[in-house]
Write a structure and sequence with these properties.
single chain, alpha/beta, 4-stranded antiparallel sheet, globular
Length: 230
């Protein structure tokens, strides 16, 4: 049984792709509990299952077997509409490729999720500016992505992930396209998110420097967690 106080939990989770003899177990019987405000890194080689596990914990994919809980709610019991609402209101996402809209300014990219959610202009402005200030980019809010460095673009992406006030942020290879100095600053921001806001952060990463900044590092191989380092 999953820990009811966990922000995220998985119990004997399996994710298979394909059928019969061609079936591949990308995640193979994983159980894990992640506490509120914890910064956890999923590490491993390509094909180890870390991104698949991240997607299962985020409700972007459904397990073939086992159960996943988000703040005590078992995800398989939720409708697609409920999952969309959960992702919109309680979850933030950060991706390797930043995912910013080129024609929009940093401010407009950050406030877009609130605009889609029907939040008033005054409240959107307040929250977008607050998020940009948190990542140190309020002074660059009028710049479009092509006018920003890679590190600045990723900071905008983090601000966008935080703007709706999520309880959990999932980051898939957030430093994959950044140099080591910039990657370290992004890792520092992600640590600060948990420390100052109590946001749970789960990242899938090849970047061992980023992994070392996490509260826990879960090493994955062949779809299983092979070691846990605090």
């Amino acid at each position: 049984m999953a820990n009811g106080t966990a922000a995220l939990a998985a119990e004997s989770v399996v994710r298979e792709f394909g059928d019969g003899d061609n079936a591949v177990r990308a995640v193979d019987g994983v159980s894990v509990n992640i506490a509120p405000g914890e910064f956890v890194a999923l590490v491993g080689r390509s094909g180890s299952g870390k991104t698949t596990l991240l997607n299962l914990l985020a409700g972007l994919d459904r397990p073939s077997e086992g159960k996943v809980w988000f703040e005590g709610r078992e995800l398989s019991g939720l409708s697609e509409k409920e999952l969309v609402g959960l992702r919109r209101e309680r979850i933030g996402f950060v991706f390797q490729s930043f995912g910013l809209i080129p024609l929009l300014s940093a401010f407009e990219n950050v406030e877009l999720p609130l605009h889609i959610g029907g939040v008033s202009w005054r409240e959107r402005r307040r929250r977008a500016n607050e998020s940009l200030e948190l990542v140190g980019l309020l002074g660059r809010s009028g710049h479009r992505p092509y006018e920003l460095s890679g590190g600045e673009q990723q900071r905008v992406a983090i601000a966008r992930a935080l703007v709706a006030g999520p309880s959990v942020v999932f980051a898939d290879e957030p430093t994959g396209e950044l140099d080591s100095v910039t990657a370290e600053s992004i890792g520092g921001i992600m640590r600060e998110i948990g420390a100052s806001r109590g946001v749970t952060v789960v990242t899938a990463t090849h970047d061992l420097m980023l992994a070392d900044m996490a509260d826990r590092r879960l090493q994955m191989a062949d779809g299983r967690i092979t070691s846990i380092e605090d």
